[in-house]
Design brief:
The protein has 216 residues and is mainly α. The protein contains 10 helices and no strands. It has one domain.
Length: 216
């Protein structure tokens, strides 16, 4: 995802409830919070390391991009909470729409307020978790994430772009599988109160980041 100048620094503790809900071992908590530190705002690896676009660097950047983008990472973790109630085909449909969104972003870039809309998807998924919205709204929401993730590779040659998109697909798929697997072991502990608390975190982050993107 492209770097938004108006976005406020991201603070790791906002994701701490998700880390704990996923049942991550205590040894992994510092590493998880390190990934979510404010410095991760420049979350496109090609820019961070000043790399030239090649198939290898494109793949690496695609693998890292969803992990280093806090709004996208939170959205993926929240999708895993929704996915607990549905079959694996639902998650595959999400990945497919994300891929379609990336393809659309390469052909028709420049959607107005795209960054703000991506942040607002956190509000949508929170309302889905609370039972206020239909989960099918998450399909176009995930496509929007894919659309914005493609903006950083505009102007690249086809080979690096292809490997970047492949990296995105692998990274997002593995994140969803890992989160779903971890959550299934702790699903009993995810009470209604816990789910509402996580939804409140999403609502707060989504609203704050949306406002920041609009006024920045």
């Amino acid at each position: 995802m492209s770097i938004s100048k108006g976005r406020q620094p991201f603070h790791g503790p906002a994701v701490a409830p998700f880390v704990l809900a996923l049942g991550l071992p205590a040894a992994l908590l510092p590493a998880a919070l390190l990934l979510l530190a404010p410095a991760a705002q420049a979350h496109h690896l090609m820019h961070l390391l000043h790399l030239k676009p090649t198939p290898l660097t494109g793949l690496i950047s695609g693998l890292a991009h969803p992990v280093l983008g806090p709004d996208h990472l939170l959205f993926l973790l929240a999708l895993s909470l929704v996915g607990l109630r549905h079959r694996a085909s639902w998650m595959l449909a999400l990945l497919g729409t994300g891929l379609a969104g990336s393809a659309l972003g390469l052909v028709l870039p420049g959607l107005p307020f795209a960054e703000a809309l991506v942040s607002f998807t956190l509000v949508l998924v929170a309302l889905v978790l609370l039972g206020r919205l239909d989960r099918r709204l998450l399909l176009p929401a995930f496509a929007l994430h894919g659309y914005v993730l493609s903006a950083t590779v505009l102007g690249w040659n086809p080979a690096p772009i292809s490997f970047y998109v492949l990296g995105l697909l692998i990274s997002q798929g593995l994140l969803l599988l890992f989160a779903l697997g971890a959550l299934r072991h702790t699903a009993v502990a995810l009470s209604t109160t816990t789910t509402r608390s996580l939804a409140a975190v999403l609502l707060g982050c989504g609203a704050a980041w949306t406002w920041s993107a609009l006024v920045g």
